[in-house]
Amino acid sequence: MTETPEAVEESRPPEESTLIAELRLYRNPRAVARGRHVLAGWLSDDPLLFDAQQIVSELLTNAVIHPENGLGRESIVLRASWLDTDLLLEVIDPGPLRRFSIPNARMPAIEAESGRGLGIVRDYARAWGTFVTESGKRNVWAVLSRS
Predict the structure, then answer these.
(1) Record keywords: Kinase included (predicted)?
(2) Is 23 left (phi over 0), alpha (psi -120 to 50) or beta?
(3) Is 20 in contact with 80 (CB distance < 8 Å)?
């Protein structure tokens, strides 16, 4: 049996951030490893690196798997920014072709082979959320805290 908590409301990350870097990736399975590798270069030996890579792996995997394919829907964006000493990670994907549904962190059945990604993000992050951009893309974000 799968337990599903209430859906997350659409929410935006804090606006007062300083961009570290942004990377556009082709939407395919190799994007996940590439994103983790590039993030390691951005954060170097920062203590938040391991947790950041876990979050980025989950968000990029979802961005590769879930949106529908089609013309103009081939890329995703990974963005990292500082919020004072906290780290803001964002993954922007093409979004849904139809009605936008807000992803939520759920508890999959023990035998399930997938469905744990946003639960992992929720567990590592101080805050996380999602919203639809003005251009219709989906932005899923997470904030990692040093404390």
Answers:
(1) yes
(2) beta
(3) yes
Query: What's the gap between Cα 124 and its chain centre?
Result: 12
The answer to whether the CB of 106 falls within 8 A of the CB of 14 is no
Helices (H), 49-110: 49-65
pTM, 2 dp: 0.80
Mean pLDDT by runs of 10 across the 147 residues of the chain is 45 90 95 98 96 96 81 88 96 75 52 58 91 89 91
Asked if residues 79 and 142 have their Cβ atoms less than 8 Å apart, the reply is no
Q: How many domains does the chain have?
A: 1
CATH number of the domain encompassing residue 32: 3.30.565.10
Q: 71 lies in which domain range?
A: 18-144
- The answer to whether 102 and 7 are in contact (CB under 8 A) is yes
Other CB atoms within 10 A of residue 99 CB: 5
Q: State how far the Cα of 64 lies from the Cα of 100, in Å rounded to an integer.
A: 17
Residue 83: CB partners within 8 Å, gap ≥ 6? 13, 14, 16, 17, 18, 143
Give domain status of residue 65, yes or no: yes
The confidence score (pLDDT) of residue 104 equals 53
